[in-house]
């Protein structure tokens, strides 16, 4: 599924009264979706900051980075290992480090250090598509435990093991032939919403 703005839209899970968000991006497609997410957060008056330590050479991903820079979204040069600094500076973290296409080898640096830090933050974590460190089929082995999951296109098998507060799906953009091919049964999207809640707040 191509990267699109509609895939990265976790706004219902982030109260507007808590505008500061740290968006942590990995080097592959999920990281690019995180950049798109940060851009949308800025458009809707949140205050995102991006940590993107291993930038992809892909021209499309470079364009997303440039767009964020042009919108004056700050980029961190390093992720504090003192978790309290993150807890104090931000109200939520968007996990766009590893996604459904991640393989075991992608747990190496800098991703391993990032996950080690994110496992200890106390502020809410919103994971895009697949929580980082999870196997797309089996679920969590040594990954993080997000408060919110935003499944892209459709929930992956591992979402059955998600125990967080809220689960959204962003898949309204899927063509009907794709839905039929993969025997998807998408939920009804109210009005013009790009995401729909699969689990009410707990």
Can you describe what's shown?
By secondary structure, the protein is of the alpha/beta class. The chain has a single domain (1-198), classed as Rossmann fold, CATH 3.40.50.10260. Helix content is 24%, strand content 20%. It is built from five helices and ten strands. It has helices at residues 29-43, 59-70, 83-89, 111-118, 176-181, and strands spanning 20-25, 47-51, 75-76, 92-96, 125-128, 134-135, 139-140, 148-152, 166-170, 196-199. Helix 1 (29-43) runs parallel beside helix 2. One of its GO terms (molecular function) is NAD(P)HX epimerase activity. This is ApoA-I-binding protein 2. Residues 1-186 form the YjeF N-terminal domain. It comes from Pelecanoides urinatrix (Common diving petrel).
């Amino acid at each position: 599924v191509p990267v699109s703005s509609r895939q990265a839209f976790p706004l219902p899970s982030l109260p507007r009264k808590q505008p500061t968000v740290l968006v942590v991006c990995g080097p592959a497609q999920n990281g690019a979706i995180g950049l798109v997410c940060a851009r949308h957060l800025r458009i809707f008056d949140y205050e995102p900051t991006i940590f993107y330590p291993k930038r992809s050479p892909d021209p499309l991903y470079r364009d997303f980075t440039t767009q964020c820079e042009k919108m004056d979204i700050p980029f961190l040069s390093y992720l504090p290992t003192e978790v309290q600094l993150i807890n104090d500076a931000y109200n939520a973290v968007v996990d766009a480090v590893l996604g459904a296409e991640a393989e075991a080898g992608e747990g190496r640096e800098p991703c391993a250090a990032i996950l080690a830090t994110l496992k200890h933050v106390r502020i809410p974590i919103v994971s895009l598509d697949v929580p980082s460190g999870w196997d797309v089929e089996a679920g969590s082995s040594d990954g993080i435990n997000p408060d919110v999951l935003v499944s892209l296109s459709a929930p992956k098998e591992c979402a059955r093991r998600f125990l967080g507060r809220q689960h959204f799906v962003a898949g309204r953009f899927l063509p009907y032939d794709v839905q039929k091919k993969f025997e998807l049964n998408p939920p009804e999207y109210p009005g013009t919403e790009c995401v729909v809640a699969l689990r009410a707040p707990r």
